[in-house]
Amino acid sequence: MALANPFDAPGAHDLTAHVDFATLGGMAELSGAKVYGPVGQGDFLGLLGIADRAASLARAHPDRGPELAEAHHRLTHPSEMGALFRAMALTGMGWPDPAAFG
Question: Tag placement on the chain: N or C end, fewer CB within 10 Å?
């Protein structure tokens, strides 16, 4: 597996990693960061508005409605990726709450 720069073609690389969230969060707090999460991917994407975005895309591309509905289900449903993948945010003290964690 080759290393990928996440800033080179954002969204085009798989940045999946096995993360020990408890250790990461604990170390971040010891360093003065504020920790949010972890939360399941389904909840995270839901709070970011994935359902509205999927509906908007389906209206704009009715021929792709079933494909978009399946992708939404796969990304958010607990029996799919919605509970398998998790998200965490770290911020400096005094920074605003990150989207979907506030």
Answer: N
